[in-house]
Structures are given as C-alpha cells and as structure tokens.
Amino acid sequence: MKKILACCTALALMGMVSFGVATASDKGPADMTLESTIDKAKKPKPAIFPHAAHQGRLECGECHHAKDDAGKQVAYVEGQKIEKCESCHNKGETMPKELATYKGAAHAQCKGCHAKTSKDLAKCGVCHPKQG
Ligand code: HEC
Ligand code: HEC
Ligand code: HEC
Ligand code: HEC
Predict the structure, then answer these.
(1) Burial, 106: exposed, middle or buried (Cβ in 10 Å; 0-12, 13-18, 19+)?
(2) Could you count the other beta carbons within 10 Å of the beta carbon of residue 56?
(3) Ligand 2: distance of its center to the CA of 5 in Å?
(4) Mind listing the pLDDT tens digit of every residue in the chain (132 residues)?
(5) Half-sphere exposure of 128 (CA within 13 A, CB side)
(6) Which residues contact 79 (CB under 8 A, 6 or more apart)?
(7) Cα 99 to ligand 1 centroid, rounded to whole Å
(8) Which residue, judged by its Cα, is nearest atom 25 of ligand 3?
(9) How crowded is the C-beta side of 72, counted as CA atoms within 13 Å?
C-alpha cells in the first residue's frame, strides 16, 4: 500500500512539473502583456491580454493560424507550433498594409471582435491601461 501511495505521489509531482514545460498541448501563459518588438511605436503602448479567459470561450483557431510556403494563411490545427503574431505580421513581410504590423493584426483581430461585442469593449483603455 505504501509503495502504491509513494508511486502515486511521484506521478502527481511529475505531472505538476510538466506544467512548466512546453508540450504539444501547451496553452501558453494565462495572462500576457503584449508589446511590439519589431515595428515599435515611438511611444510604446503595451496591451494587456487575459489569454486563459479568452481560451475559455473561444477556439484556439479563432486567433492562431499558420502560413504555407506561398505565404498564404493556413487554418489552425491542434498541436501546431504557435509563433508570435509579429514574426509574420511585420513590415518586412509581404502582407496587406493594414496587417503588416503587430498593431494592425492585433487591432483587426482583438479590436475587431471587441467592437462587434460592444462599443465599450473596443475602447483603447480596455487593452491599453493608462501607464503610471
Ligand atoms: C481589444 C484590444 C485593443 C484595443 C481596444 C485597442 N488596442 Fe491598440 N493594440 C492592441 C494590441 C494587442 C497591440 C499590439 C501589441 C502592442 O504593441 O501593444 C496594439 C498596439 C497599438 C499601438 C502600437 C504600440 C506599439 O508600441 O507599437 C498603438 C499606438 C495602439 N495600439 C493604439 C490604440 C488606440 C489609440 C486605441 C483606441 C482607439 C487602441 N489601440 C485600442 C490591442 C488593442
Ligand atoms: C483571443 C485570441 C486567442 C485565443 C482564443 C487563443 N490564443 Fe493563444 N495567444 C494569443 C496571443 C495574442 C498570443 C501572444 C502571441 C504573441 O506574443 O505574439 C498567444 C500566445 C499563445 C502561446 C505562446 C506562444 C509563444 O511562444 O509565446 C501558446 C502556446 C498559445 N497561445 C496557445 C493557445 C491555445 C492552445 C489556444 C486554445 C486552447 C489559444 N492559444 C487560444 C491569442 C489567443
Ligand atoms: C506563421 C505566420 C503567421 C502568424 C504567426 C500569425 N499570422 Fe495572422 N496571418 C498570416 C497570413 C499569411 C495572413 C493572410 C494575410 C493576407 O491576407 O494576405 C494572416 C491574416 C491575419 C488576419 C486577417 C485574416 C483573419 O483571419 O482575420 C488577422 C486579423 C491576423 N492574421 C491576426 C493575427 C494575430 C493576432 C496573430 C497572433 C495571435 C497572427 N495573426 C499570427 C500569417 C500569420
Ligand atoms: C472573438 C472575440 C474576441 C477576440 C478575438 C478577443 N477578445 Fe478580448 N474579449 C472578448 C469578450 C467578449 C470579452 C468580454 C468578456 C467578459 O466581459 O466577460 C473580452 C475581454 C477582454 C479583456 C478584459 C476586459 C475587461 O475589462 O474585463 C481584455 C483586456 C481583452 N479582452 C483583450 C483582448 C486582446 C488584447 C485581444 C487580442 C490579442 C483580444 N482581447 C481578442 C472577445 C474577444
């Protein structure tokens, strides 16, 4: 009996440790502060993003996608490698102008959905809290 218990404890501990390691089912951080690093604005405007809260009501593919060799957008498939938005959405990539920055891609996606939900949710301060 003791042996079984010890074994269970060890397994439980291993499970806990693996939460910190990236795996195919990695859900990413629960809360993030998003900030441009490539096409930075002169005055940075970081955005807060409760990732886990959005995951609770949206499919991963609502926001994440990939691209093929021809540079075309490819729909999300479970377990795919998830890259930073900015690694594709930057001025150095061939993209429609309005999507060729982190700001452009994020506003199209984040602000776009928020605006559809309610006017208040699309206000700047919802994502860009005043910096003190
Ligand atoms: C639903 C969320 C959301 C709303 C609402 C929103 N933004 Fe953003 N915005 C972002 C995200 C995400 C980024 C990309 C990450 C970053 O740099 O902050 C961004 C980027 C920016 C940037 C570029 C910042 C940089 O450092 O390069 C500016 C400027 C900006 N937003 C201004 C505004 C203004 C002005 C409004 C209101 C009219 C607004 N945003 C509303 C999410 C939002
Ligand atoms: C509402 C939009 C949205 C939804 C829904 C969403 N994510 Fe994300 N996720 C993001 C954004 C934005 C980032 C930050 C990307 C960046 O830093 O450029 C991110 C980052 C991540 C990262 C970290 C990537 C890295 O290397 O920094 C992982 C992993 C991830 N998401 C997995 C998931 C999974 C799995 C789901 C579904 C269960 C999901 N996400 C649902 C928007 C979303
Ligand atoms: C691996 C490259 C890649 C990554 C990473 C990526 N995108 Fe895209 N995205 C594309 C391509 C390619 C298109 C199609 C552009 C066009 O119309 O030619 C696109 C289109 C879009 C569009 C317009 C079409 C649509 O689906 O609404 C939005 C908005 C967008 N991306 C936002 C994001 C955001 C936000 C992130 C990060 C969570 C992200 N993208 C990550 C490559 C990428
Ligand atoms: C497909 C729709 C959708 C997308 C895409 C989306 N959001 Fe949201 N977001 C929502 C909804 C709906 C709420 C309000 C939920 C609630 O009130 O419980 C919300 C809430 C939030 C909140 C908390 C607002 C508050 O005051 O409680 C923040 C911050 C936020 N979103 C930022 C972002 C950012 C940044 C992105 C893009 C990386 C994003 N959202 C993408 C639908 C979306």
Answers:
(1) buried
(2) 8
(3) 37
(4) 445 544 444 444 444 444 444 444 689 999 999 999 998 889 999 999 999 999 999 999 999 999 999 999 999 999 999 999 999 999 999 999 999 999 999 999 999 999 999 999 999 999 999 875
(5) 14
(6) 24, 25
(7) 13
(8) 109
(9) 3
